[in-house]
Structures are given as structure tokens and as C-alpha cells.
Fold:
Amino acid sequence: MGFDHVFFLIFLFSVFIHNLLEFTNAQMPGFMSLDCGGEKNHTDKFGIEWSPDDQIIYGTPSKINIENETRQQYQTLRYFPADNRKYCYSLNVKTRTRYLVRATFLYGNFDINNVYPKFDISLGPTHWATVVISSANVIESHELIFLASDPMISVCLSNSTTGLPFISTLELRQFNGSLYLTPFENQFYMSVSARINFGSDNEDPVRYPDDLFDRIWQSDLLKKANYLVDVAAGTEKISTNVPIKTGNDELPPQKVMQTAVVGRNGALTYRLNLDGFPGFGWACTYLAEIEDLKSNGTRKFHLILPGEPQLSKAIVNIEENAQGKYRVYEPGFTNISLPFVLSFKFAKTTDSTEGPLINAIEINKYLEISAGSFDGDVAASVASGYKSLDWAQEGGDPCLPVPWSWLECDSDPQPKIISIKLSNKNITGSIPSDLAKFSSLEELWLDGNAFSGSIPDFTGCPNLRILHLENNQLTGAIPSSLANLPKLSKLFVQNNLLSGSVPSALLNKNIVLNYTGNNLHKGSRGGKINKYVIFGLAVGAAALIIGFITSCLLFRHRKKDVKHEPEGSFHVSTMSNTTSESGQCFTLSELKFATKNFEKKVGSGGFGTVYYGKLSNGKEIAVKVLGNNNVQQGKKEFANEVSLLSRIHHRNLVKFYGFCQEEGKDILVYEFMHNGTLKEHLYGPLAKEPRINWIKRLEIAEDAAKGIEYLHTGCVPSIIHRDLKTNNILLDINMKAKVSDFGLSKLAIDGTSHVSSIVRGTVGYLDPEYYISNHLTDKSDIYSFGVILLELISGKEAISNQSFGTNYRNIVQWAKFHIENGDIQGIVDPCLGDEFDIQSMWKIAEKALMCVQPHANMRPAMSEVIKEIRDAILIERGVEEVGGSSEELSWNSFHSSLKKGLVDTSGIDPNSFHESITRPSAR
Structure:
């Protein structure tokens, strides 16, 4: 071969390598990466091309206040007002194509307020997730896998609870295969809950360009609270440089499949928190035999899921199932019910020489797709005609998750548009014909614009009651078809260019009609009814004015007659209207007789002393006599407690029987609780007796939580207890718990926080945010209840100088350290022994940590706490979760069979799946 030939071959080879590198570095089709708030295009170190989101007209670009953030796409963000609107990004997609959409949020204290935002994100009308920011420096990420049904999708932010809604990046990644094909994708999105790379060398995730679709595979070494804990002894990392044959571009990338963990002692165990669960989801495990086994070696194992014995039958032999070494086998389920805390185990079979192996796992939760608003397509058509106007660019669904600013919707599951208000919007041209197609529309306001042309036929709006067309440039006649609208009650067409006669049918209709300022004249009949209506309105207005004046005079007269009480006095007699219904006014002699002259003391505290008594009818009572230490504050608490107790009734609140104010004494009378306080049973004098077991502690927690939930949601206005602690949870003769002591409680008026000049409560249970800000909300009670949950788990006091060692003085810091390090046994009360299910213990521990979050907006509502307690009780009682539905396919073969074309998904009925997914789970 000559030199020229060799040179030519070298040249061709170099061109091939150059083109290969160009192709490798080029992004996959369907990539879209928005740098929200960014100013120019840029490419990051992974080769991902980022563009600014300057096509959106709403929101304000801003920079974060973190000096060491080097990634350009996270140095900026876009934030939006904390109002009742939604703010949407519109993204172009290909129909019938699967995508991954990812939104990320790095707060970075951009507003210099250190107020961690909480808001909602939705995909079109479907609620995607609630974004909860818990750190200024940590990125919150949410991912969704969906099948595009339209050429455009909308990602919307709305419903700000605290702070300002914002977004850092918005990404779209297109798939090209069928790995994520499910029989249910037309009815459910998949919310990504976990995607884990086992055997990783470090905490860095694997993503593009290793993963061509830019999925983010988190390391199993990631140091994150409760990410992967309870790792079995003998778990060992292994890896290989041999290429792995995937056979499917969407399977995990080489870098993920070339690492794994092996259970040398015969088992791999993990515990994982699944965001968004409990619920139904899609789960897949990715396995490849990357270890050289001995000539007679075998690796067989099976999955073990608590409460799901039917899923543990299939045996996995990776090399055999994958048809060779260094090939991927992907057993999984397309419909499986999973809890929030997933404890899973892979255990070798008795005839296996090697322990189990796992390379990667992926778990997604099914998210039911909302059908959207009833007339959403009609509203979108109306808006599309005015793309240059601000009001027409709001995006997303007209009603969900919140309505567009210019319309109102009803509260049906599939909401209907009932009011359109486009007054003074500077709209020109003819009235859009689509406005006459809203079948549920009740009000239409088009006044104050420059509409021209004729009035359309509105008979397509049979529910229309109010129609405003005044102050436009409409021409022609008033259509007689308006009289055919059965519910029309108000019609305003004044100040237009209308001509001809007013239809007699309208004049004879009992409606408010104004047609002045036009070239119109009455028809052959009428006018009397309309004059009567206007006259009636005038009379009604006059009557209202007379009534108002009379009320003012009466109020002034009453005000003069009021007798002012001396400042600082508190008399229950001023509350007689409320107390007489549920609180008896006892005489001092009655109470002396009932208590045998206050003979038997059963409790005491800063409030005073409690005595045992029995009324003449045999009813046992507890008599609380107010102390004299702080008379002024004591009388305030006394009056407060009488006032509150007289209006609340719940089986988990201590019954209030009445009060007494004689001879300078302030006395409250309650039902007698035979088993004392919860505190006494956990670490008081009663703790020497046989300690209450775990399930009884859970039942006590549920009882108390129900009482608190009633205070928060069942009372109008709601009541904030403000002094929840184990000493204020009393136990009756059947060990049923009831909440007591409402002396420090506050009314939450109109759901707003209460600003108190003096912070009150008990050290150890006191909400730190309330202590700092003096702003009291129901979330202050949630904090206190979280402390009580930790006491129930540990049997320790909230504050102790000895119990928690030298590093910690309070139960929250101590418990948080152990829980976040996966050491649940480190805080469990030794008196409980092993008489509890570890999963129920974890469930309560994790919920307790949520309750004692430092920021109130991070804490759950009491209803959420009750649900977790109930789930834990069901676990302890051995109630199994509802089993998999008939659509649940074999762990052993679904994805592999799908790859080989052996599974016919057309025979699976999505409607049957829909029923199973909405079925309540026992977990």
C-alpha cells in the first residue's frame, strides 16, 4: 500500500472520529433547557445547551444570594407574585411521544427575606406537586414522565402558601423507545420518586452525557436523611469495565450498569422514603451479572416486600434471565401499591452459592390526569384570538388549578366556566362567536371595549343570567333570540350604535333592561314591567337606607347606656349567654360537699390545685381551684377557659361541667379522668407499673390528635391550644386520651396568625418560630404535638440534663440526630423491647420530625398526622395492604417480555386499573 493510500485512510478515519465526536456531543432530539431568569444562551460542563426563558411575559428575573454557586443556570431564577393567579410556561412537544419534564428550584434567599416558599406546580390542569423549600442552598427537583396528547403543554406555578413562587430551571427530555410504556399512560402521568445507582464510587449523580436522555441517577452513597438506610451487613460494592449489552436505549446507561452491590451474607436490605407515596406506582429493578462466578457458582434470589407475600415467589437468576453475562435484565411491575417508607430486601435462595446483586432501581408514582375544565377548549379558542393582549396569555387550563383572572369556575370535579369578565380590556373587532358556546355560562361582561358589528346569538348559553354589552360600538338590532334565554335577568346594551325596535318579547320579560344611548325605540308592547322593576329597585334602595339610618340611631342609643366595668376585672357573668348552654354555675357549698371540703388532692401546677369530687348524682368530677400567684393573669386564663370550654364539645376533649366564682375563688369543674396524665405513665410515678405498649401509645396519640384537629378545623373560629404537652393529655378509665387545659388557648380569627405581645407555653414544647416572631398559628400546636410523639417513642422527657448525654439537652435535637442517621433503635424506649413493628416506628418517627420542623410552613396539618398514626396502628395490628390488582404483572418478566414482544398490553383494561388505583389502601 502506497503512502498516499495510507494518508487517505488516516484522513477518512480522522473525519469519522470527528463526526462521531460531534454526534456524541450533540444533544438528543427533544431536549429543551430553560435557564429561568437567565440573560443569554450558554452550555454547561455536561454539554447541555441552556436558553433564557425570555418568552414568558410574567414574573421577575432575579439573582440568588449564594456566593459559591458556580452553575450558571442556578445563579438566576424567575419569581412571581404571591396572588390568586397561576403563571405558566408553554412548551412545544410532539403528540403521542413520551417525555420527561423536570423543574428545579434553588431559593438562594433571592428576596433577602429568608422566608422559605411553598407553592404548587401543575402540568396543565393536573396538580403535579407541592414545592416545599426547606433550605436556601438545596435544590428541590420534581420530575414527571408523560405521554403528550397535545402539541403543547403548560407548566404552571400557583397557590403560594408562603413566600413567592419561583423557578430556577425547566427541562424537557424526549424518549424514543417503550421502556415507560404502560397500559395506563392515557389516564396517568408518572411522578419520579426514586432513581438509584447502586455501587457508586461517590455521591455524584450520573446524568447526561452518560445517560443520553439526561435522567439523573442518584448515588446510593448520597448523605440525605432517610435516603437509603438499614443497609445489611455484608453489603459490598463491585464494578466492571466490560461494556454492558442493554438492547434498549432507554435502559440505564453503561456507567450505572457497570456498578452494583452484592450481599455477601446472603441479603441486601434497604429502607427508602418514597416521595408522593403511599399509592400505586411503577417500579423496575435493573440487574446485570458483572461478577465472574465460580464454575459451580449460582446466584439466585427473590424480592421480599413486607405485607406483599405474593410478590416474593418469583426467583431471579440474572445470567439466565438476561440470557448471558453483562446483559441487562429488568424485572418490574406496572401497577404496584407501595407505602411511603419502603423496606425491601433481596434474599438468596437455599440452593444459591452467591448473595443477591442489584445495579439500579427506578420507582414512579401514578398521578391521575385531570380532564380539565368543561369548556376549556372554547375558552382557549377565545384567548387565542387576542395573543397580543396581556390577559389572553395566562396559559394552562382556564379553571385548574386556579382560574384565569378574567373568568370564574364552579367547584365541580370537572369545573365549568360560569362567569367571563372582559370589561375594559381594550378589545376591538366583532364579538367572538365562541363566547356564545359556553353551555354553563351565567354572567358575561364585555362592557367598556370597542366591540363592533352585531350582537351574536347567545342561545348556546342557556344558563346566561347577566349580559353586559354596554359602552361599545355594536351596530344592528337587538336580536329577538335573547328573549329565548330562560334565565336572563339583566341585559345592558346602552351607549352603543344599535338601531331599530327593541323586541317586544324582551320588553314583556321580567328583566332589568337598559338600552339608552342607542337609536332604538320600543316595540308595539311593553315597558311597564321594566318600569316596575326599576321602581321596585328604587323602593328597595330607599328601604335599605332607612333601615341603615335606624340601625345607626339604635346603636348610638345603646352605646350611651353601656355601663363600663372597672379596668382589669373579669367576670364570667358577662358570658352568661354562652356558658348557660353547656357550663353549669356551681355554688361553693356544692363543691365543698362534693370534694369533702377539698380533701383529696389529685394534681397541682402553676394554675393551682385539682381535687377529686363526686356530685350528689354520683358523677365523678375534677375540681380545679385557681391559684393566687398571679391574680390578674390567672383570672384572664380562667375567663378564657370558661369561654372556650363552653363552646367546644368533642369526645377527645375533657368534658367541662361548669364553674364557680364565690368568696374570691375561681373554680373550674371537669369530668374526672381516672388514669391521670400521659406524662405520669411515660416517666412519672405510674411509669413504675407495667409500661404502656407501643400500640396503646399509638392509640393515645390518635385520640389526642383528633381532639386537636377538632380545635383547628371543627371550631369557628378555630382554636389554638398553645400549651400542648404530655401533662395536658389525660387518660380516662378505659385509657382513652383527652386533651385538657385551655387557659392559654387563643382564637384564630379568619384563619390568620395571632400576634401576641407575650409568648406563652411550656419550655421544650414551645414552637421556636413562635418564640422568635411572636406570630402564633395552629402550626405551633403541631410542633408541640411532634414533641409528644417523640416522647411516646422514647419514653423520655422533652427537656433533660441527663437523658440525652452531653451533646443534647432537648428531645428534638437528640431524636433528629438518630433518625436522620437511620438509627431508630437509638431512640426507642427500652421498655418496649421488641414488641413493635419497625415500619410503624419509622412512620411515626418521620412524621414527628416533620412536625418539629423549624419553619411552620414545613409542618403538616393535623389531619396528615392522624393518617400516619392510623397507618402505623394498622401495621401493628397486622392489617395487610390491599393486594395487587389483576393488572399487576409478574415481577419476573414484564419488561423483558415487553422488550421481546411477548406481552400484549392491549388486553389490559385501563378502567379496571382506575378502580384499583382509587381503592383505599390499608397502609
Summary: The chain has a mean pLDDT of 82. DSSP finds 18 helices and 48 strands in the chain. The chain has five domains: 28-174, 223-368, 399-526, 573-671, 678-876.
